[in-house]
């Protein structure tokens, strides 16, 4: 037997060569497709939630900067933030002589004052003061009032009382006064009066608050 015949016999005895191509089971393919669809749905839902939060925030929070005419013609800058969802109005006040933050918390029925030159906060029960409603403040912001004069502003004077219990103040006021003591302030029995002299402490939307 020649060499050629031997090679033909050996080739015939060897198993044929097959290309192995793995096949994904049908069930696994379905699971992959379901996973992709779920990921897409979650992405769409998260995007919709984020858009909704942004739109809601735009509708519940309003911010405006105002300028008030202070003592001796001094201009007092105020930044007002109204959050209708939390029922809170916050006033950031700054001038050459005054730096203060005032919170109108309508949900708690309290007004908190932090004059930064004093190492304390003062809290007043809202019923004692003729403050505008949150809706009225929002209306003022919507009409973009640029300047408020302290002339003929309504003056309230307060005197300090005892320490306030943080549990009775609510979250917003506790955050404002987190590093200083908080005292109740009691309104003097005198009736509030219009005044044409400079406001001694804080002027907010024609309301002058003075602390003795």
TrEMBL record:
Gene Ontology cellular component terms for the protein in this record: extracellular space
Stretches that traverse the bilayer: 32-55
Subcellular location field: Secreted, Extracellular space, Surface film
Major localisation: secreted
Keywords: Disulfide bond, Gaseous exchange, Lipoprotein, Membrane, Palmitate, Secreted, Surface film, Transmembrane, Transmembrane helix
SMART domains named among the record's database cross-references: BRICHOS (SM01039), SF_P (SM00019)
The organism's place on the tree of life at top rank: Eukaryota
Domain BRICHOS, first and last residues per copy: 94-185
Single biological process term from Gene Ontology: regulation of cell population proliferation
Protein role: Pulmonary surfactant associated proteins promote alveolar stability by lowering the surface tension at the air-liquid interface in the peripheral air spaces.
Name of the molecule in the record: Surfactant protein C
Source organism of this protein record: Anolis carolinensis
Organism placement in taxonomy: Eukaryota, Metazoa, Chordata, Craniata, Vertebrata
